[in-house]
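Troubleshooting log. The previous structure file for this entry was overwritten by mistake, so regenerating from the original sequence record. Sequence copied from the archived sheet and checked twice against the printout by T.R.
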Amino acid sequence: MPTEEELFAAVDTLLAGEPALPGPAERSRLREAAGVTQARLAQVLQTTTQTVKNWEAGRSEPRPPRRQAYQRLLEGWAQQFPADAAPADAASTATASAAPAPGDTAPAPTAPAPTAETPSAHPAPDAPPRSRTPHPEKAPHPRKAHRPAHRPTPPPADQRFENGPLAVIDVEDGHVLAYCVGGLVLDVPAKSLPALIDWTLTEARLGQPRLHRNGRDGDPLLVLTPAALERYGLPTALSDEERRAGRLPDSHKAVRQLTRADWKLTRRGLGPWARIYRPAEGAKRHCVQLCIPAWNALDAREWDDRNAPRLPSMHPADLARYLGAYAERVMTPRGTAAVTGLELMTALHPPTRAEKDPVTGAFTRALNEDALTAVHDVVECEVPDEHPLLKGRFARHHLRTPAEMLMEEPYDWCRPLTDDECMRQYLVAIDVNMSFAAAANGLTVGLNGPTHLTGDPPFDPSLPGSWLVDLSHVDLSRVRVDGRPVDGGRLPSPFTPKGERPTGPAWYATPTVAYAVELGFEVAPVEAYVRTRTGRYLDAWYKRLRDAYVTTMADLGVTTGLGGAEFLDAMARSRQSDPVMALLVGAIKATAKGGIGKLRQRNRGQVPYHEPWPALERETWRPDIRAAVLANQRIGLHRKLMKTAAAADLYPVAVGTDAVVYPSPGPTPLDVLPRTPEGKPVPGTFRLGVSPGMVKHQGTRTVLWAEEQFEEQGGVFNIANHIKTDPAAGEGE
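Regenerated output below.
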């Protein structure tokens, strides 16, 4: 128990009042004037960099004993670096607005200091519970705890979603807070999970406007931290049984709470990604999505840095910034990055629209011609082995041949180095930016079901689909590129993922057969399955992801105007510039790659072998479109390999998906990629840059390293994806 003297001393201190800290903007100014980084300040005060960021953004205040140390430091800096026009006192400093940067909008006015009429963002612990009864016609604005004045947020185009697409729900000092985009923090009054859902739909003003006029608005997303899970009666980790099921049991208290409140769950239940809804009323939806990172909703393979995970320790404000930027640039996440990539296709090309009957005046549902609108019949050669169509056709472990199965996949090819190549010191790996998204751009795909062509049909490059044709006669050594021959023995075949020359008839997607014609060879299909209603379905999807990727890379200091050495230097600096935006780059790339993969989602033990699995019920389960994109990606890569070989007598030694390895006299791509006498990239070859389809430096190793790897493995294997940063060379990514 404290003594009487100690209590009186504490009271005297309280009566005297604590010295006021400068406002958030002044704290940041003083630190920057002293040339001290946030990380260094955090080290001195024995706290985290994120905590210092919160102090300077006004999201939180330091507490004793750090408060006194921070106060002393700021006072010392204030004497060394006085402001040109210092505010009259600390209070005016706290409310002063920073001048907007060139091109920025004027900052939003800061909230007044709390008074009897203006409640504080965080009510006192002994304050009575607030009663919030939404107006029947207009929902009240949620209490806004803080929006940093130095990071102005432009007013949203749709006032229904003025607080952004999502919020990260956390608990701090007993208060439930919702961290939104732009630094906004909302006070959450909800005491239970059903109340949290009600608050989100009636007060939070969260959500995202539709991406297409015939689409639907994005449902609000709540990301629950472990502290929020505890507050709302949810486990902070799933049991082994729950993890296998991917959900909590229906008998769980939280599920029963939702049921009693007339909320429903989709068939995936209350799991890492949960949808909680009530039936729609006309065009108005009542749906909230939950994302629970503690249950592995944000898989490190898509959303995090697998080598140095950041999400588990990320502050809720940074998590809101990360996922909020993803939502604004791509769309509100609806599951894994792969699931979101597929959902983005539908959001940009909705299958239906409302159409007014000219006679009755009633609105009915009509199909959009440029979308995937139905589940069509499938083709035997295009489906994976476990598809119900193949039941009884082959033995369980039968390996279908290229004449039985469409095998359009990315490259996985490697060859031994020649004696001349061994004389070069380095192996330089380059990587194609967003290669699958780039391959989707401008690609014509089928929008309807298959038409079977028999009797040796002539090849028609305008019809997307699958063709049974013999391309074994294509000899790359007979091809002339810009009038020059190439050494076909040192190039992979464009027709097989392993780079081996075909030995007979095989199924190919339209882009592959069209490339054989482009190379100057005759083709004679035996039969085909084609689609007669066609369109460039993936163009809008590509452009959305391209813009997201390029914008995020610009945030990291890598812009489209850079080339050559400037680009390589900017890429090297980008890795240390902004960890949150660096994660966003990875998530965007995972969305593009995963979205294409979802077009042929396989049965992962959901149902018995050769029984229908849920993905087959989607209009977007289209293995033929996936095959066309992968074929176009591989063909586009091969076209550049041919151009490079003809221009500089330069041949790859390995190709892995979208990475190409070249022998080089020096450690960077500038030492190996061909250039014109004017110093520009040779047209049609690989070009350094940030845009999708251009290349970056993946890494560098020595030729000696490769030979040692081959010796250890007992033979040649694909080294393309094993070449990352070489510590000795200091290069690579």
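Residues 85-141, 145-149, 726-733 have pLDDT under 50 and may be disordered. Archived copy saved in two places this time.
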